[in-house]
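Help!! Second protein's tokens look totally different from the first
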Amino acid sequence: MINEERVRELYHIAKYDMTQGTKNSQMGHFYRSDYIWKELIKSFFTGTISFAIIVILIGIYYAKSIIKAFSSFDLEHISIIMVIMYVIFMIVYFLITYVVYYHRYTIGRRKLKELYEHVKRANKLYEDEEINN
């Protein structure tokens, strides 16, 4: 005889595996701080590449005026401004990364706890069935 309650629990487990299983699996393997630090390290590289691409694109856009005024550039002053802009860009990028992945971890961890509750209920139903038989 089919136990409808057990089928319902197994359905929730299968639905979770199909929709969110791979996405939230990392939340079960890492503590919150480790997960966020891992994402911040990845963001350092992506943020640096993004900043470089933005600077290159702006340089290409203003190439004519840069070439005309190149002899009067104070490279020390420009490099200091670029470093300050890079630091500000990275601070903002890190803050956004922190908020996004903190939120994702919190939601993912909550959904993972819900999954564990379904697994516990399904196991309990299997145990009850074995005891009754």
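Here's the second one for comparison:
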Amino acid sequence: MQVSLCRSAMFLQDQGRWPARGTFPAPEVLDEVMVESDGPRGPLRHVGPVLRMERTPPRWETQSPILGQDSAQWKTAP
């Protein structure tokens, strides 16, 4: 899947969750879309998935790996 960060922001604006285009939302407005994850770089606060789905909630299992951290192979399911 490919996702455009710009289009994701526009999606939130189109839903009326952020101010008009050309303005940046206040930090307290961003709190509802921010998530925190822990990984090799330590705690990271970032924008989470922009969609909310009841049966299959979107999420990231881990942060992006540090270059060279993982071997070139598919990970197996837990």
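Reply: Different proteins will give different token patterns, so don't panic. Helices lie at 5-14, 27-30.
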